[in-house]
Every structure is written in C-alpha cells, then in structure tokens.
Amino acid sequence: MVILRDIPSRSTMNKRKVKTIYNQLDELYESSKKLEINEETRVVIFSDLHLGDGSSKDDFIQNAHLFQTAVEKYYFSKDFHLVLNGDVEELQRFSIKRIKSKWKDIYELFRRFDEKNMFHKLIGNHDLALCLPNKPESEFNILHCLTLQTTAGDMQVYHGHQASMVYEKLNKLVGYTLRYLANPFRIKNYSIAHSSRRQYAIEKRVYHYSSYRKRVSIIGHTHRPLFESMTKAERIKHKIEALCRKYIELESDDDRKSVKKMIKSHKKELNKIFSKSKPPFLAVIFIILYFMCHACSIQAV
Length: 301
Known about the structure:
The protein has helices at residues 12-30, 64-76, 96-102, 104-115, 167-182, 196-213, 232-249, 253-275; strands at residues 33-36, 42-46, 81-85, 119-122, 142-143, 146-150, 153-157, 216-219, 287-288, 296-299. It is an alpha/beta fold.
C-alpha cells in the first residue's frame, strides 16, 4: 500500500499523481513473471531496438550486424537469458509484417532463445500495439514486467513508460505523427529520449519509487547511458564541452551557427538549474539501458 505522506513531493496534487504511478508500478511488480537468479544464471538485457523495415528511416539498421553477431556468437552460445526490455519493434512507424519480413534472421535468433525457455520480451510504448485490442499477431509471450529474484533482493525490469500517467492516451497520437508526418520527410525517431526535461521527470519518478520500495528498477525508454550517475547540470556541461570541441573542427559558417545556437540553449538551461536553491536531482540507484550504445549483462556472483 502506498502511503501519501511518505511520497516526496511539494504539493498534495503532485503526491496524488505520484501515488497513482506508484500503484501502477506495484501492479506491474505483483503480476510480473519471476526469474530466479542463482550462481549459474546469466542474463543480458537490451532495450529500445526499434526494429523497422530496413529503409533509411529504420533506426536499427546501423546496429543490426553488431547486435546479431554479439547475441548469436556470444550470448546464445554462453546460455544467457535474453531480455528485450521494450520498444523492440517500431510499430508507430511500420507494420509488424514489414518488420518481420526485413529482419527474418533476427526473429529466428529470438526463436532459438525461446526454444530454450531463455527469451523474455517486454512491452514498450513504441510496440504497445502488441497488447492493445485488435493487436497484431505475436508468436512470443509479451510481458509488461520481469522480476529478477536474487539473494540480495528483487530487481524489477520494465520499459519505463509506465512511470508516466498519459503514455497510453498519447501513444496513438504519437504513432500517427511518426507514420504519416515524420516518415515521408525521413525524420529520425523522435521520442522522450530527445527531451531532457521529460527524461528527468521519468527517471526521477522511477528513482523515488525504487527508493520507496527498496527495490532496484531496470528501465529503458529514456535512451540514457548505462549506469549514468551524473546530475542534470553535469550532463549539460558535458554536452557544452562536446559542442565546443565540435565548433572548433567545423569549417562551414552555417554549421558553426547551428552549434553555437545549441550551446546557447544548453547554457540557458544550465543557468536555470544554478538559479534554483535546491540541488539538481542525482540519479544513482537505477539502471538505464538502451541498445544504441549499451547493453547490460547480469551474472550472479
């Protein structure tokens, strides 16, 4: 049971919203599939593959060979459990038929893990259609949450969009925008991963929920690096430093103007943080996983 007075928030209204989210995450945990982790168990977790149709709009294509080689040559041969933590298919842009037609070898690899009962596929917001009415047919069991049970305590694995109150309501609208507006103009996938403010809102809720329940949360969704523990201010500083280095290397005036504009935007955001008396949120407890740069391996010791 979630106690309202124990929730860290400034107002009663915010506490009620957070309580709703905590209850959602509690329901996920209670109904989750349980996987016991012992000394012999190996688990690898990938998140946000965003499989597409193989076109220039497919965010997965640039990492497809790396993913397939690593999973097949190492994780499968070493008897790892393969956990896909949401947004496996990019169903807001492409049909499941087109995706499966392009990535037959990838799905065959999934089947090989499934045959060994070592495949765990979780739902995300970009493949949420697999769990909605009139859903596309899926040959795999779809999970909303997976609990890794260890002697040190449980680890709750879920995509992360469940920490938002409006994800299901807005999901269809986002899908329409991506498929019928972004696709024709070859715009890359834009989601919460590109919004610093929304990233931290989701992460902060998950962090406080994990602290409240004394249980590790493993999420994807925000596409932030593995085990990242920088404050928001530190992260923005790193972005500014990287942009400054890039600025020096650029020769085109137009490119320099674009980078300069981004630097000014980040500096403005940094000044807002420093103007507040309260120190910025420090995300140190939970694990953010995303495929584009990282994967997480868990082995009991």
